[in-house]
From TrEMBL:
<feature type="modified residue" description="N6-(pyridoxal phosphate)lysine">
    <location>
        <position position="307"/>
    </location>
</feature>
<dbReference type="InterPro" id="IPR015424">
    <property type="entry name" value="PyrdxlP-dep_Trfase"/>
</dbReference>
<dbReference type="GO" id="GO:0030170">
    <property type="term" value="F:pyridoxal phosphate binding"/>
</dbReference>
<dbReference type="Pfam" id="PF00282">
    <property type="entry name" value="Pyridoxal_deC"/>
</dbReference>
<dbReference type="InterPro" id="IPR015421">
    <property type="entry name" value="PyrdxlP-dep_Trfase_major"/>
</dbReference>
<dbReference type="GO" id="GO:0005737">
    <property type="term" value="C:cytoplasm"/>
</dbReference>
<keyword id="KW-0456">Lyase</keyword>
<dbReference type="GO" id="GO:0004058">
    <property type="term" value="F:aromatic-L-amino-acid decarboxylase activity"/>
</dbReference>
<dbReference type="GO" id="GO:0019752">
    <property type="term" value="P:carboxylic acid metabolic process"/>
</dbReference>
<keyword id="KW-0663">Pyridoxal phosphate</keyword>
<dbReference type="InterPro" id="IPR002129">
    <property type="entry name" value="PyrdxlP-dep_de-COase"/>
</dbReference>
<keyword id="KW-0210">Decarboxylase</keyword>
<protein>
    <submittedName>
        <fullName>L-2,4-diaminobutyrate decarboxylase</fullName>
    </submittedName>
</protein>
<dbReference type="InterPro" id="IPR015422">
    <property type="entry name" value="PyrdxlP-dep_Trfase_small"/>
</dbReference>
<comment type="similarity">
    <text>Belongs to the group II decarboxylase family.</text>
</comment>
Length: 477
Protein backbone atom coordinates (compact mmCIF):
# COMPACT_ATOMS: atom_id res chain seq x y z
CA UNK A 1 0.00 0.00 0.00
CA UNK A 2 1.47 3.41 -0.92
CA UNK A 3 2.18 5.85 1.90
CA UNK A 4 -0.27 8.79 1.82
CA UNK A 5 1.07 12.37 1.84
CA UNK A 6 2.74 13.24 5.15
CA UNK A 7 -0.09 15.48 6.26
CA UNK A 8 -2.71 12.72 6.06
CA UNK A 9 -0.57 9.62 6.63
CA UNK A 10 -1.39 7.57 9.73
CA UNK A 11 1.09 6.91 12.52
CA UNK A 12 0.13 3.27 13.03
CA UNK A 13 0.33 0.19 10.85
CA UNK A 14 3.33 -1.06 8.92
CA UNK A 15 3.64 2.20 6.96
CA UNK A 16 3.30 4.44 10.01
CA UNK A 17 6.99 4.47 10.94
CA UNK A 18 7.91 5.43 7.35
CA UNK A 19 5.51 8.37 7.53
CA UNK A 20 6.81 9.41 10.94
CA UNK A 21 10.52 9.42 10.16
CA UNK A 22 10.78 12.69 8.16
CA UNK A 23 8.34 14.33 10.52
CA UNK A 24 10.44 13.36 13.51
CA UNK A 25 13.55 14.76 11.87
CA UNK A 26 11.69 18.05 11.48
CA UNK A 27 10.52 17.96 15.11
CA UNK A 28 14.02 17.31 16.45
CA UNK A 29 15.51 20.09 14.33
CA UNK A 30 12.80 22.52 15.47
CA UNK A 31 13.31 21.56 19.13
CA UNK A 32 17.01 22.28 18.71
CA UNK A 33 16.63 25.65 17.01
CA UNK A 34 13.87 26.67 19.41
CA UNK A 35 16.05 25.94 22.44
CA UNK A 36 18.94 27.82 20.84
CA UNK A 37 16.74 30.85 20.21
CA UNK A 38 15.44 30.78 23.76
CA UNK A 39 18.97 30.40 25.19
CA UNK A 40 17.83 30.06 28.78
CA UNK A 41 15.24 28.59 31.12
CA UNK A 42 12.43 30.89 29.96
CA UNK A 43 11.77 33.18 26.99
CA UNK A 44 12.60 36.79 27.88
CA UNK A 45 10.12 39.64 27.74
CA UNK A 46 7.21 38.45 29.85
CA UNK A 47 3.68 37.38 28.91
CA UNK A 48 2.88 40.10 26.38
CA UNK A 49 6.13 39.61 24.45
CA UNK A 50 5.73 35.84 24.33
CA UNK A 51 2.08 36.09 23.27
CA UNK A 52 2.94 38.53 20.48
CA UNK A 53 5.73 36.26 19.21
CA UNK A 54 3.41 33.25 19.13
CA UNK A 55 0.66 35.18 17.33
CA UNK A 56 3.04 36.53 14.71
CA UNK A 57 4.66 33.13 14.07
CA UNK A 58 1.48 31.10 13.90
CA UNK A 59 -1.13 33.38 12.32
CA UNK A 60 -3.35 32.27 10.70
CA UNK A 61 -3.91 29.02 12.59
CA UNK A 62 -6.87 27.98 10.45
CA UNK A 63 -6.01 29.10 6.90
CA UNK A 64 -8.16 28.26 3.92
CA UNK A 65 -5.22 26.38 2.47
CA UNK A 66 -2.59 24.78 4.66
CA UNK A 67 1.13 25.52 4.57
CA UNK A 68 2.06 21.85 4.33
CA UNK A 69 2.98 19.38 7.07
CA UNK A 70 6.71 20.00 7.36
CA UNK A 71 6.41 23.79 7.33
CA UNK A 72 3.57 23.77 9.87
CA UNK A 73 5.36 21.30 12.11
CA UNK A 74 8.63 23.21 11.96
CA UNK A 75 6.99 26.57 12.68
CA UNK A 76 4.83 25.51 15.59
CA UNK A 77 7.34 23.22 17.29
CA UNK A 78 10.07 25.86 16.97
CA UNK A 79 7.70 28.50 18.37
CA UNK A 80 6.69 26.28 21.27
CA UNK A 81 10.29 25.38 22.10
CA UNK A 82 11.53 28.96 21.84
CA UNK A 83 8.71 30.06 24.15
CA UNK A 84 8.90 27.19 26.62
CA UNK A 85 9.81 27.02 30.27
CA UNK A 86 12.51 24.36 30.03
CA UNK A 87 12.72 22.21 33.18
CA UNK A 88 15.95 20.68 31.87
CA UNK A 89 17.66 24.03 32.43
CA UNK A 90 19.14 23.99 35.97
CA UNK A 91 17.86 27.53 36.52
CA UNK A 92 14.25 26.47 35.86
CA UNK A 93 13.42 25.45 39.42
CA UNK A 94 10.09 26.89 40.44
CA UNK A 95 7.69 23.98 40.44
CA UNK A 96 7.34 20.21 40.62
CA UNK A 97 7.81 20.27 36.85
CA UNK A 98 10.42 17.72 35.94
CA UNK A 99 12.67 17.39 32.89
CA UNK A 100 11.52 14.08 31.39
CA UNK A 101 13.97 11.37 30.51
CA UNK A 102 14.61 11.13 26.77
CA UNK A 103 13.94 7.42 27.15
CA UNK A 104 10.47 8.08 28.55
CA UNK A 105 9.69 10.69 25.90
CA UNK A 106 10.64 8.22 23.16
CA UNK A 107 8.35 5.60 24.69
CA UNK A 108 5.58 8.18 24.83
CA UNK A 109 5.94 8.66 21.08
CA UNK A 110 5.20 4.97 20.57
CA UNK A 111 2.16 5.29 22.81
CA UNK A 112 0.91 8.22 20.75
CA UNK A 113 1.51 6.42 17.45
CA UNK A 114 -0.26 3.21 18.51
CA UNK A 115 -2.94 5.14 20.43
CA UNK A 116 -4.37 2.36 22.60
CA UNK A 117 -7.46 3.48 24.49
CA UNK A 118 -7.38 2.06 27.98
CA UNK A 119 -11.14 1.63 28.42
CA UNK A 120 -11.64 -1.81 26.87
CA UNK A 121 -9.41 -4.80 26.17
CA UNK A 122 -10.20 -4.86 22.46
CA UNK A 123 -8.68 -1.37 22.14
CA UNK A 124 -5.56 -2.14 24.18
CA UNK A 125 -4.75 -5.86 24.37
CA UNK A 126 -1.05 -5.68 25.21
CA UNK A 127 -1.24 -2.28 26.90
CA UNK A 128 -3.86 -3.52 29.37
CA UNK A 129 -1.61 -6.38 30.46
CA UNK A 130 1.41 -4.07 30.69
CA UNK A 131 -0.59 -1.66 32.82
CA UNK A 132 -1.69 -4.41 35.20
CA UNK A 133 1.84 -5.76 35.61
CA UNK A 134 3.50 -2.38 36.06
CA UNK A 135 0.92 -0.83 38.37
CA UNK A 136 1.01 -3.87 40.64
CA UNK A 137 4.81 -3.84 40.74
CA UNK A 138 4.74 -0.21 41.87
CA UNK A 139 1.98 -0.90 44.38
CA UNK A 140 4.17 -3.64 45.86
CA UNK A 141 6.80 -0.99 46.66
CA UNK A 142 4.18 0.86 48.71
CA UNK A 143 2.66 -2.23 50.32
CA UNK A 144 5.48 -4.80 50.50
CA UNK A 145 3.62 -7.05 52.95
CA UNK A 146 0.28 -7.01 51.12
CA UNK A 147 -0.86 -10.16 49.34
CA UNK A 148 -2.30 -8.50 46.25
CA UNK A 149 -1.53 -4.76 46.13
CA UNK A 150 -2.81 -2.78 43.20
CA UNK A 151 -2.68 0.72 41.73
CA UNK A 152 -4.75 2.79 39.37
CA UNK A 153 -3.08 4.96 36.74
CA UNK A 154 -4.11 8.60 37.07
CA UNK A 155 -3.24 11.96 35.55
CA UNK A 156 -1.33 12.95 38.68
CA UNK A 157 -1.61 13.74 42.36
CA UNK A 158 -4.81 15.75 41.98
CA UNK A 159 -6.76 12.89 40.40
CA UNK A 160 -5.23 10.39 42.83
CA UNK A 161 -6.32 12.48 45.80
CA UNK A 162 -9.80 12.85 44.36
CA UNK A 163 -10.06 9.08 43.93
CA UNK A 164 -8.85 8.55 47.49
CA UNK A 165 -11.58 10.78 48.88
CA UNK A 166 -14.17 9.11 46.66
CA UNK A 167 -13.16 5.63 47.85
CA UNK A 168 -13.24 6.80 51.46
CA UNK A 169 -16.70 8.29 50.97
CA UNK A 170 -18.00 5.07 49.44
CA UNK A 171 -16.40 2.90 52.12
CA UNK A 172 -18.29 4.94 54.70
CA UNK A 173 -21.67 4.43 53.00
CA UNK A 174 -23.85 1.74 54.56
CA UNK A 175 -23.98 -0.39 51.42
CA UNK A 176 -21.01 1.10 49.59
CA UNK A 177 -23.08 3.22 47.21
CA UNK A 178 -23.07 6.96 46.85
CA UNK A 179 -26.82 7.16 46.23
CA UNK A 180 -28.05 5.08 49.15
CA UNK A 181 -31.08 6.87 50.70
CA UNK A 182 -30.00 5.65 54.12
CA UNK A 183 -26.64 7.36 54.02
CA UNK A 184 -25.82 8.66 57.52
CA UNK A 185 -26.88 12.24 58.14
CA UNK A 186 -23.25 12.96 58.98
CA UNK A 187 -21.12 12.48 55.83
CA UNK A 188 -17.42 11.73 55.64
CA UNK A 189 -15.34 14.41 57.32
CA UNK A 190 -11.89 15.02 55.86
CA UNK A 191 -9.18 16.17 58.28
CA UNK A 192 -5.90 17.51 56.90
CA UNK A 193 -3.15 19.96 57.70
CA UNK A 194 -2.69 23.46 56.40
CA UNK A 195 0.28 21.95 54.56
CA UNK A 196 -1.97 19.66 52.49
CA UNK A 197 -2.20 20.08 48.73
CA UNK A 198 -5.07 22.27 47.53
CA UNK A 199 -6.53 19.31 45.63
CA UNK A 200 -7.78 17.85 48.93
CA UNK A 201 -10.13 20.79 49.41
CA UNK A 202 -11.15 20.79 45.76
CA UNK A 203 -11.88 17.05 45.86
CA UNK A 204 -14.09 17.47 48.93
CA UNK A 205 -16.00 20.19 47.09
CA UNK A 206 -16.38 18.10 43.93
CA UNK A 207 -17.65 15.12 45.94
CA UNK A 208 -20.18 17.10 47.95
CA UNK A 209 -18.34 16.56 51.24
CA UNK A 210 -18.09 19.09 54.04
CA UNK A 211 -15.21 21.53 53.96
CA UNK A 212 -12.13 19.70 55.28
CA UNK A 213 -11.11 20.49 58.83
CA UNK A 214 -7.72 22.11 58.26
CA UNK A 215 -5.37 21.88 61.22
CA UNK A 216 -2.51 24.34 61.78
CA UNK A 217 0.98 23.30 60.72
CA UNK A 218 3.18 26.15 61.97
CA UNK A 219 6.35 24.07 61.50
CA UNK A 220 5.28 22.77 58.11
CA UNK A 221 4.13 19.33 59.28
CA UNK A 222 0.96 17.86 60.76
CA UNK A 223 1.69 16.81 64.34
CA UNK A 224 0.10 13.76 66.03
CA UNK A 225 -0.92 15.75 69.10
CA UNK A 226 -2.84 18.23 66.97
CA UNK A 227 -4.61 15.42 65.13
CA UNK A 228 -5.35 13.52 68.33
CA UNK A 229 -6.99 16.58 69.88
CA UNK A 230 -9.05 17.16 66.76
CA UNK A 231 -10.25 13.56 66.42
CA UNK A 232 -11.00 13.30 70.13
CA UNK A 233 -13.10 16.45 69.86
CA UNK A 234 -14.95 15.03 66.85
CA UNK A 235 -15.79 11.74 68.60
CA UNK A 236 -19.57 11.36 68.75
CA UNK A 237 -20.12 14.63 66.92
CA UNK A 238 -19.45 13.59 63.35
CA UNK A 239 -19.62 10.61 61.06
CA UNK A 240 -16.70 8.74 59.50
CA UNK A 241 -13.37 10.54 59.26
CA UNK A 242 -10.60 10.50 56.65
CA UNK A 243 -7.22 11.71 57.88
CA UNK A 244 -4.94 12.99 55.09
CA UNK A 245 -1.18 13.19 55.61
CA UNK A 246 1.43 14.53 53.20
CA UNK A 247 4.75 13.00 52.21
CA UNK A 248 6.34 15.93 50.43
CA UNK A 249 4.56 19.26 50.67
CA UNK A 250 4.53 21.59 47.68
CA UNK A 251 5.83 24.50 49.75
CA UNK A 252 8.88 22.94 51.40
CA UNK A 253 8.94 19.22 50.65
CA UNK A 254 8.24 18.38 54.29
CA UNK A 255 7.08 14.89 55.24
CA UNK A 256 4.51 14.44 57.97
CA UNK A 257 5.32 11.95 60.78
CA UNK A 258 3.58 9.06 59.03
CA UNK A 259 3.90 6.24 61.63
CA UNK A 260 2.63 8.42 64.46
CA UNK A 261 -0.25 9.75 62.36
CA UNK A 262 -1.15 6.18 61.38
CA UNK A 263 -1.27 5.34 65.10
CA UNK A 264 -3.63 8.24 65.79
CA UNK A 265 -5.89 7.36 62.86
CA UNK A 266 -6.08 3.75 64.01
CA UNK A 267 -6.76 4.77 67.61
CA UNK A 268 -9.74 6.88 66.53
CA UNK A 269 -11.03 4.54 63.82
CA UNK A 270 -10.28 7.02 61.03
CA UNK A 271 -9.44 6.08 57.48
CA UNK A 272 -5.92 7.16 56.46
CA UNK A 273 -4.73 8.56 53.10
CA UNK A 274 -1.20 9.72 52.32
CA UNK A 275 -0.51 12.16 49.52
CA UNK A 276 3.00 11.07 48.48
CA UNK A 277 2.82 12.60 45.01
CA UNK A 278 6.14 14.37 45.61
CA UNK A 279 7.95 12.18 48.11
CA UNK A 280 6.77 8.75 47.00
CA UNK A 281 9.73 8.29 44.65
CA UNK A 282 11.96 7.90 47.71
CA UNK A 283 10.77 4.28 47.61
CA UNK A 284 13.29 3.73 44.82
CA UNK A 285 16.19 4.90 47.01
CA UNK A 286 17.95 2.68 49.54
CA UNK A 287 19.39 5.86 51.07
CA UNK A 288 16.15 7.78 51.57
CA UNK A 289 13.27 5.28 51.60
CA UNK A 290 13.23 5.12 55.41
CA UNK A 291 11.75 8.63 55.36
CA UNK A 292 8.54 7.00 54.10
CA UNK A 293 8.25 4.53 56.98
CA UNK A 294 4.57 4.16 57.74
CA UNK A 295 3.43 4.57 54.13
CA UNK A 296 2.13 0.99 54.02
CA UNK A 297 -0.30 1.68 56.85
CA UNK A 298 -2.41 4.00 54.69
CA UNK A 299 -5.62 2.81 53.07
CA UNK A 300 -4.65 4.72 49.92
CA UNK A 301 -1.45 6.39 48.71
CA UNK A 302 -1.07 8.96 45.91
CA UNK A 303 2.09 8.76 43.80
CA UNK A 304 3.24 10.88 40.87
CA UNK A 305 6.14 9.96 38.62
CA UNK A 306 6.06 13.17 36.61
CA UNK A 307 7.79 14.73 39.61
CA UNK A 308 10.70 12.75 41.05
CA UNK A 309 10.23 10.07 38.41
CA UNK A 310 11.24 12.07 35.33
CA UNK A 311 8.24 11.08 33.23
CA UNK A 312 6.40 13.25 30.70
CA UNK A 313 3.04 14.39 32.02
CA UNK A 314 0.90 12.50 32.96
CA UNK A 315 2.19 9.72 35.21
CA UNK A 316 0.19 9.44 38.43
CA UNK A 317 -0.95 6.45 40.48
CA UNK A 318 -3.21 5.66 43.40
CA UNK A 319 -1.90 2.62 45.28
CA UNK A 320 -4.09 0.41 47.48
CA UNK A 321 -3.27 -2.69 49.56
CA UNK A 322 -5.76 -4.88 47.72
CA UNK A 323 -8.28 -4.86 44.86
CA UNK A 324 -11.28 -4.90 47.24
CA UNK A 325 -10.54 -1.24 48.01
CA UNK A 326 -11.32 -0.41 44.38
CA UNK A 327 -14.69 -2.19 44.28
CA UNK A 328 -16.74 1.05 44.48
CA UNK A 329 -15.39 2.05 41.06
CA UNK A 330 -17.17 -0.86 39.36
CA UNK A 331 -19.12 0.42 36.39
CA UNK A 332 -20.68 -1.33 33.43
CA UNK A 333 -21.26 -0.09 29.91
CA UNK A 334 -22.39 -2.79 27.54
CA UNK A 335 -20.30 -1.64 24.60
CA UNK A 336 -17.11 -1.66 26.69
CA UNK A 337 -17.42 -4.33 29.38
CA UNK A 338 -20.55 -6.38 28.79
CA UNK A 339 -21.18 -8.97 31.50
CA UNK A 340 -20.87 -11.92 29.15
CA UNK A 341 -17.58 -10.61 27.75
CA UNK A 342 -16.19 -10.22 31.27
CA UNK A 343 -17.40 -13.70 32.20
CA UNK A 344 -15.72 -15.03 29.05
CA UNK A 345 -12.38 -13.65 30.25
CA UNK A 346 -12.05 -10.21 28.63
CA UNK A 347 -10.50 -7.91 31.26
CA UNK A 348 -12.69 -5.12 32.62
CA UNK A 349 -10.76 -1.86 32.17
CA UNK A 350 -13.63 0.57 32.65
CA UNK A 351 -13.65 -0.01 36.41
CA UNK A 352 -10.02 1.02 36.74
CA UNK A 353 -10.54 4.74 36.23
CA UNK A 354 -13.08 7.55 36.46
CA UNK A 355 -12.12 8.34 32.88
CA UNK A 356 -13.32 6.46 29.80
CA UNK A 357 -10.84 7.14 27.00
CA UNK A 358 -7.35 7.42 28.46
CA UNK A 359 -3.82 7.22 27.13
CA UNK A 360 -1.47 4.27 27.75
CA UNK A 361 0.64 6.35 30.12
CA UNK A 362 1.96 3.14 31.60
CA UNK A 363 4.25 2.49 28.60
CA UNK A 364 6.75 5.25 29.36
CA UNK A 365 6.73 4.28 33.04
CA UNK A 366 7.28 0.60 32.24
CA UNK A 367 10.13 1.37 29.82
CA UNK A 368 11.84 3.53 32.45
CA UNK A 369 11.47 0.91 35.18
CA UNK A 370 12.71 -1.86 32.88
CA UNK A 371 15.68 0.17 31.64
CA UNK A 372 16.89 1.69 34.93
CA UNK A 373 15.52 -0.64 37.57
CA UNK A 374 14.84 0.44 41.13
CA UNK A 375 18.51 1.15 41.81
CA UNK A 376 18.92 3.26 38.69
CA UNK A 377 15.94 5.43 39.57
CA UNK A 378 17.09 5.50 43.19
CA UNK A 379 20.44 6.90 42.07
CA UNK A 380 18.66 9.75 40.25
CA UNK A 381 16.64 10.45 43.39
CA UNK A 382 19.79 10.46 45.52
CA UNK A 383 21.61 12.82 43.17
CA UNK A 384 18.70 15.24 43.06
CA UNK A 385 18.32 15.34 46.84
CA UNK A 386 22.07 15.77 47.18
CA UNK A 387 21.91 18.82 44.91
CA UNK A 388 19.33 20.35 47.23
CA UNK A 389 21.67 19.83 50.19
CA UNK A 390 24.46 21.48 48.22
CA UNK A 391 22.27 24.49 47.51
CA UNK A 392 21.40 24.73 51.20
CA UNK A 393 25.10 24.64 52.06
CA UNK A 394 25.82 27.46 49.61
CA UNK A 395 23.02 29.56 51.07
CA UNK A 396 24.13 29.00 54.66
CA UNK A 397 27.68 29.97 53.74
CA UNK A 398 26.59 33.13 51.92
CA UNK A 399 26.54 36.32 54.05
CA UNK A 400 23.66 37.87 52.10
CA UNK A 401 21.22 34.93 52.18
CA UNK A 402 18.93 33.35 54.72
CA UNK A 403 17.93 29.64 54.60
CA UNK A 404 14.45 28.68 55.78
CA UNK A 405 15.40 25.13 56.82
CA UNK A 406 17.45 22.19 55.66
CA UNK A 407 15.66 20.50 52.76
CA UNK A 408 13.79 17.22 53.29
CA UNK A 409 13.42 16.43 49.59
CA UNK A 410 14.59 18.66 46.74
CA UNK A 411 12.89 21.95 47.64
CA UNK A 412 14.97 24.74 49.15
CA UNK A 413 13.44 27.92 50.59
CA UNK A 414 15.69 30.96 50.88
CA UNK A 415 15.74 34.74 50.59
CA UNK A 416 18.15 37.64 50.63
CA UNK A 417 18.67 38.67 54.23
CA UNK A 418 16.27 41.41 55.24
CA UNK A 419 14.28 41.36 51.99
CA UNK A 420 10.62 42.17 52.50
CA UNK A 421 7.62 40.66 50.70
CA UNK A 422 7.52 43.32 47.97
CA UNK A 423 11.23 43.01 47.23
CA UNK A 424 11.13 39.21 47.01
CA UNK A 425 8.14 39.25 44.67
CA UNK A 426 9.86 41.84 42.48
CA UNK A 427 13.10 39.83 42.32
CA UNK A 428 11.23 36.73 41.21
CA UNK A 429 9.22 38.54 38.53
CA UNK A 430 12.28 40.36 37.20
CA UNK A 431 14.14 37.06 36.78
CA UNK A 432 11.10 35.63 34.98
CA UNK A 433 10.72 38.62 32.68
CA UNK A 434 14.42 38.61 31.82
CA UNK A 435 14.26 34.88 31.14
CA UNK A 436 17.22 34.28 33.46
CA UNK A 437 15.73 32.03 36.16
CA UNK A 438 12.44 30.46 37.16
CA UNK A 439 11.99 30.39 40.93
CA UNK A 440 8.85 29.74 42.90
CA UNK A 441 7.46 31.40 45.98
CA UNK A 442 6.24 29.98 49.27
CA UNK A 443 4.52 31.70 52.17
CA UNK A 444 5.21 30.27 55.62
CA UNK A 445 4.52 31.56 59.15
CA UNK A 446 7.86 33.36 58.85
CA UNK A 447 6.87 35.22 55.69
CA UNK A 448 7.54 34.93 51.97
CA UNK A 449 10.46 32.91 50.62
CA UNK A 450 11.94 32.20 47.23
CA UNK A 451 11.54 28.51 46.37
CA UNK A 452 14.00 26.44 44.37
CA UNK A 453 12.54 23.05 43.47
CA UNK A 454 15.39 20.99 42.07
CA UNK A 455 14.34 18.12 39.80
CA UNK A 456 17.23 17.90 37.36
CA UNK A 457 19.48 15.05 38.54
CA UNK A 458 22.35 16.41 36.44
CA UNK A 459 22.49 19.84 38.12
CA UNK A 460 26.03 20.78 39.12
CA UNK A 461 27.24 22.94 42.03
CA UNK A 462 28.31 25.61 39.55
CA UNK A 463 24.73 25.84 38.27
CA UNK A 464 23.55 26.50 41.82
CA UNK A 465 26.24 29.10 42.47
CA UNK A 466 25.19 30.92 39.30
CA UNK A 467 21.54 30.78 40.36
CA UNK A 468 22.36 32.51 43.65
CA UNK A 469 24.42 35.13 41.79
CA UNK A 470 21.46 35.86 39.52
CA UNK A 471 19.23 36.46 42.54
CA UNK A 472 21.89 38.55 44.23
CA UNK A 473 22.28 40.65 41.10
CA UNK A 474 18.63 41.67 41.30
CA UNK A 475 18.60 42.32 45.07
CA UNK A 476 18.55 46.00 46.06
CA UNK A 477 21.53 46.96 48.18
Amino acid sequence: MPVPPAGTALAGGTNGPRALRPLLDTVLDALTTGAEDRAGPLPPGGPETVARTVREACHPLLPDHGSGPLAALRTLVHTLAAGAADPADPHCAAHLHCPPLALAAAADLAAAALNPSMDSWDQAPAASTLEALTSRALAALVYPQATDPDALITTGGTESNQLALLLAREAAAPDGTATDPHRPARPLQVVCGANAHHSIHRAAWLLGLPEPLTLPTPDGILTPDTVHSCLANLAGRTGPVLLVATAGTTDSGAIDPLPALADVAEQHGARFHIDAAYGGALLFSDTHRAALHGLARAHTVALDLHKLGWQPVAAGLLAVPGPATLAPLAHQADYLNADDDTEAGLPDLLSRSLRTTRRPDILKIAVTLKALGRHGLGELVDRTLAAAQTLADLIEAHPRYELHSRPTLSTVLFRPTGADHTTLAAIRRTLLTDGQAVLGRATTPTGLWLKATLLNPHTQPGDLTTLLKLVEGHTPR
